[in-house]
Write a structure and sequence with these properties.
The protein is an alpha+beta fold. Helices cover 21% and strands 22% of the residues. The chain has a 5-stranded antiparallel β-sheet with strand order 1-2-3-5-4, with helices on one face. It has 2 helices and 5 strands, in the order αβββαββ. The chain has one domain (4-103): HIT-like (HIT family, subunit A). Strand 2 (24-28) and strand 3 (36-42) form a beta hairpin.
């Protein structure tokens, strides 16, 4: 598999780790769209939100359980945004389910 995020998980491509546990890995985006821009991924390959099933949805739950902890550690005390892109029209650039945690300033009402 030639998945960028799977390679990051294997340590084949460097990343700046923010958080990890047995279920998920979070790291800084290399092209941040806000002062804080963290990508949070499951440790299993799920292509996109369309690939979430009863068998792998626990990973998504673990991501959302960790988001408040990551946000607090990043100092996002006045709010933040969580986004996932799905498919070509949703501008998904890496075909591995991931969530963007954005904050650190007042974000525009519409992004993209």
């Amino acid at each position: 598999m030639d998945c960028l995020f799977c390679k990051i998980l294997k340590g084949e491509i460097p990343s700046t780790k923010v958080y990890e546990n047995e279920w998920i890995y979070a790291f800084r985006d290399i092209a941040p769209q806000a002062p804080t821009h963290v990508l949070i991924i499951p440790r299993v390959h799920v292509t996109s939100a369309d690939g979430i099933t009863a068998e792998n949805s626990l990973y998504v739950a673990k991501i959302f359980e960790a988001i408040p902890e990551i946000a607090k550690a990043e100092g996002l005390t006045n709010g933040y945004r969580v986004i996932t892109n799905c498919g070509e029209n949703g501008c998904q650039s890496v075909k591995h389910l991931h969530f963007h945690l954005l904050g650190g300033r007042k974000l525009p009402e519409q992004m993209g």
